[in-house]
Predict the structure.
Amino acid sequence: MRVVLQRVTSASVSVDDVVVGRIETGLLALVGVTHTDTSADAEFIARKIADLRLLRGEASVADTTGAGVLVISQFTLYGEGRKGRRPTWSAAAPGPVAEPLVREVADQLRQRAVTVEMGVFGADMQITAANDGPVTLILES
């Protein structure tokens, strides 16, 4: 599992011009799933997202009242562009494998009392984020 994590002062995701998820202070988590990922990977990633001290004052989202995480499925994180001009997505898990694991990341965060908003799996989403810092980190399980 691969995650691009960005500290934000606000972030939202829209589908067909309708906002389906919005957070204020917190983290935007773009989550990619590959073929070999399991529930253990989802739990590891959720724990890292919740506990990493990335917010101002070296706080984590688990420690900060009002902080949230906007979870967005992002299969393109497993894109490969080394050869030719057309990227390949063969390392990305198919939807029936990836969707439950992305949801599991969100559910694991909620079990840690983190406020979670989500995009719509497989939808054409527009994401707006106000990066804070900027602070961007790549996580892998």
